[in-house]
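Supplementary Text 2. Reproducibility record for the structural model of the 159-residue chain.

All settings were left at their defaults, and a single model was retained for analysis rather than an ensemble. We include the record here because the model underlies the residue-level annotations in Supplementary Table 4.
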Amino acid sequence: MSICRFSIICSNNKKRTRNNDESPVEASIRDRILKQVAESGVDTVLLPLNFMNAHWCCVAIKVQAKRIIYYDLLNQAPYMNAANAIATHLKISGLQEYDVIPQNNRIQFDAYSCGVYVCWMSICQVIPEPPLDMSATSMTRRRFEQLYEVDFSLWKHPH
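Retained model, structure tokens:
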């Protein structure tokens, strides 16, 4: 049985620029991610990225495959550059044997569904199933499916 770890959400206040010397990942988050990667049985570590409370991207670390995958479903250079900087920083900081790979396989069709896309892309990284229909006509259904999963899980396992 493989295990997936969902790391702390990384909130980035700005898109990366060429002149930025700051580390793209806080040390505490980086250390937590590296610890999760080293855990026995962990196959995937997910790191959702939030930019200015307006856009979501994701970095997925596939432990067995030794790959750090990153994607922005709008495929915009500033977000891809920021996600690449985070993925590369993780590689340099302890995952040297991992390949850093951009994913551009599903393109978001609007300016507001990035969170839904990131959730479903994360699910696809963890559960190998046939690709989901993520077209404009299916987004309402995907939103309700996510709402049902969250609501049902909370109802079934109240805290």
